[in-house]
Amino acid sequence: MRVNFILPGLGDSGGIQVVKKYAELFREKGIDVVIYSSVIGDDLHRYPVKIKNKVHQVYCTWKTWRVKKSNTKSYIQWVPMISSKYIREADVTIATTWSSAYKVAKLNQKCGKKYYFIQDYEIWDNKEFGDQSYKLPLHHIVIAKWIDKILTEQLGCVPADIVHNGIDTEFFHPALKKEKHEGIRCLMLYHTLPKKGVGDGAKAFKKVKEQDPNLSLTMFGMYKRPEIECLDQYYQNPKKEELRNLYQQADLFIFPSREEGWGLTPLEAMACGCPVVGTNVGCMTELGVDGKNVLLSEPGDVNGMVMNIKKLIGDPELMKKLSANGLKTVSELSWKQSADKFLSILKESVR
User: Fold this and answer.
1) Residue 296 and residue 274 share a domain
2) Distance between CA atoms of 299 and 286, rounded to whole angstroms?
3) 164 φ/ψ angles, rounded to the nearest 5 degrees
4) Which domain range does residue 203 map to?
5) What is the pLDDT of residues 229-260, one digit of tens each?
6) How does pLDDT run across 11-54, given as a tens digit for each residue?
7) Pair 53, 108 in one domain
8) Quick one: three-class SS letters along 34-46?
């Protein structure tokens, strides 16, 4: 079986890493997989002025070339553009973003059955283009029920196949021995997208720290160190082993997202035995149980998050309970199971 994934060249986000993970797992099962990326960045139609969009496209192309230089995988191919001229014959070709969905829809029949792998409701660049991409004649595979609900109820799409993202529990696991340290270590992802709710998380932490100076805040992300008050340590683009150590040594993970497709970071934290204080979005709507394996507040509710952080740091037994139940929750997620389900959907369509 031959499978093509179509990626945007820009960056190496969590969503792109998920696609690469599936490609690796499919290849381990003997599937012939190629990932295609265009060396020219997409025009995301972010601005109402055309010239600003072209400038942004040049910027995206520059970032794409930076990623291209670090590519070492033979099955990741860079092409001048996503078109039938450059994409090989296959049984299945899969779009992975709204911008790539338009390109996949135009490919000819040699590229096989056309799918759209949807990891979020992508409308932050351009709602009109994003919404219309979901109405293209592509078979949907989504990672969460909430995404499918929006697409079916608001956009009239056919119900999608649902495949939850997995967790690498062989790599992400509790530390054999946790370091002794003073105070309470809080950990949080830094991201520039407003929907990630970083400002909410920072405000909540600051309010708690004003009452309990014993707290410290560590953040990590792909970007340069942010100007955030009360930030003690920052790790820019940490290596995977370094990220695991951050999870393992933290006392709690703050997940303040206002909107999330799935959200790998809180699940990675759970896998490392780190209790999570989060919002009821993404994976938490399906896997999180408030008071059992996580403490949840509604997105944007800073005071609710403050109460949950204070509740957790004031109750060592609750910390142990959330840690143990969080480990149990992620143990039921595996990349193998996710890859098997994803692949069975593709094989069924080919048959």
Assistant:
1) yes
2) 15
3) -70, 145
4) 184-331
5) 899 999 999 999 999 999 999 999 999 999 99
6) 667 788 899 999 999 999 999 999 999 888 788 788 888 888 88
7) yes
8) EEEEECCCCCCCC
